[in-house]
Amino acid sequence: MVSLALRLFRHHRGAAIATGLIALIGMALVSTMTTLLATGLADSTAEEDRSFLTQFPARPSAAAPGRSAGRA
Length: 72
Hints:
The protein has 72 residues and is mostly helical. It has helices spanning 2-11, 13-38, 47-53.
């Protein structure tokens, strides 16, 4: 089974490398977005945008008001 996996990887090396690069770029983008949101919102952020930008907390302790962090 391992030899089959290695043979398929050698045959499709370009696709495997491209997939790995795309995954790496995606992780970098998500990490950057999380870091930016963790710094807080600017005072100039429109009020209607604030709820969308904060509905995906990076930490469980940043739960929505009125909800405990352990409850879904």
